[in-house]
């Protein structure tokens, strides 16, 4: 029987985004449990005062800064796991990162998932998930190579982050208390708070596995709750004290919106329309069985509690479009 392994030397690629920042903060809080924790500074991107300040905070917390480009093999040397919490426009670079890291000796990857199940409904063919699908296919191809049978990966599936479910990009205007939703009031989506998603992710890093029977190729499904849109807006109205004027659109009209965006070359609009199709068709609803029971010390925060918390915080209020 193959020996049980844990992931002890961790590199975060994409540390400045919402998930990346939270992952780095969580790793710092538990740094004693790891041999090495580091974040990747992509030198092909421009430096900003905000990024420099953030990276200084990470370094002061005990993280190592690794700088270079995604093609720099040496930058990935000495790590056994690479986490890639990359945003929509950077996900396409994951195959390059994977190849560089494999050459450097990395054998485990967390790809940019932290969301819906790509195998549900039409998700696999949706533009919004195109680069995630290409990344999965690339990993599986490399996993079939004779020199990398020990190549493993972890997919974290949770539906959608609760904090993100009510932003303008997904049809909710909190400043004016109006919303345009593709789907119906009864449409459900699975939600899990960002802190809970990060907590579960850290637990999976410490969760032992072996290469026997593909034990190093893992999918975890974590569930908070699956409210309807009607329930979500009821919570918003209770917490904000404002009635939301909600318009529900026929989900299939987003098909033409996506086609129009593609003709215009507007990638952001194309991604928005694609996600409206996913959302409206139930693609963000996570089916069981769930893996919460593996880590009973985590108690997922309720939707009401999340909304209450983020509307009180000045930084997240800006994220929600509220001054």
Would you give an account of this structure?
Residues 9-144 form the NmrA-like domain. Keywords: NADP, Oxidoreductase. The protein is an alpha/beta fold. It is built from ten helices and twelve strands. It has helices at residues 18-29, 49-60, 94-104, 130-143, 194-205, 229-240, 253-264, 267-280, 303-312, 314-319, and strands at residues 9-13, 36-42, 64-68, 81-83, 108-110, 152-157, 160-161, 172-173, 178-182, 191-192, 217-221, 245-249. The strands form three sheets. The chain has a seven-stranded parallel beta sheet with strand order 3-2-1-4-5-6-11, covered by helices on one side. The chain has a three-stranded mixed beta sheet with strand order 8-9-12. Helix 6 (229-240) packs across helix 9.
Name the helicity range: 25-40%
Count of alpha and pi helical runs: 10
Q: Count the E strands.
A: 12
Strand content: 15-25%
Class based on secondary structure composition and strand pairing: alpha/beta
Strand count, sense and barrel status of the largest sheet are: 7 strands, parallel
- Lateral strand order in the biggest sheet: 3-2-1-4-5-6-11
Shape: globular
Spell the H/E element sequence.
EHEHEEHEHEEEEEHEHEHHHH
State Rg.
20 Å
Distance between the termini: 58 Å
Low-confidence stretches: none
Roughly what is the average pLDDT, rounded to an integer? 95
């Amino acid at each position: 029987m193959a020996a049980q392994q844990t992931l002890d030397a961790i590199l975060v690629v994409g540390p400045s985004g919402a998930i990346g920042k939270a992952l780095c903060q969580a790793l710092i809080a538990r740094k004693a449990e790891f041999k090495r924790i580091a974040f990747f500074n992509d030198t092909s991107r421009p430096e900003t005062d905000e990024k420099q300040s953030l990276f200084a905070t990470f370094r002061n917390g005990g993280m190592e800064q690794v700088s270079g480009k995604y093609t720099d093999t040496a930058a990935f040397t000495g790590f056994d796991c690479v986490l890639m919490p990359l945003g929509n426009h950077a996900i396409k670079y994951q195959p390059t990162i994977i190849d560089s890291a494999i050459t450097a000796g990395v054998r485990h990857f967390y790809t940019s998932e932290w969301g819906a199940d790509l195998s549900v409904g039409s998700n696999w063919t949706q533009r919004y998930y195109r680069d995630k699908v290409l990344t999965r296919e690339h990993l599986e191809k490399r996993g079939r190579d004779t020199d990398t049978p020990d190549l493993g990966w972890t997919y974290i599936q949770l539906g959608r982050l609760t904090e993100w479910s009510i932003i303008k990009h997904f049809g909710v205007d909190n400043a004016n208390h109006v919303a345009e939703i593709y789907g119906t009031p009864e449409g459900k989506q699975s939600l899990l708070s960002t802190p809970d998603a990060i907590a579960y992710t850290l637990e999976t890093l410490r969760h032992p596995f072996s290469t026997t029977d593909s034990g190093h190729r893992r999918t975890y499904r974590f569930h908070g709750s699956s409210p309807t849109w009607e329930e979500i807006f009821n919570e918003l109205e209770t917490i904000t004290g404002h009635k939301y004027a909600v318009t529900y659109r026929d989900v299939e009209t987003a098909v033409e919106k996506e086609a129009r965006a593609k003709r215009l070359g507007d990638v952001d609009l194309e991604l928005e329309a694609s996600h409206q199709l996913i959302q409206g068709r139930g693609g963000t609803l996570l089916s069981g069985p769930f893996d919460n029971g593996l880590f009973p010390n985590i108690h997922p925060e309720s939707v009401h509690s999340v909304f209450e918390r983020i509307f009180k915080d000045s930084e997240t209020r800006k994220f929600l479009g509220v001054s």
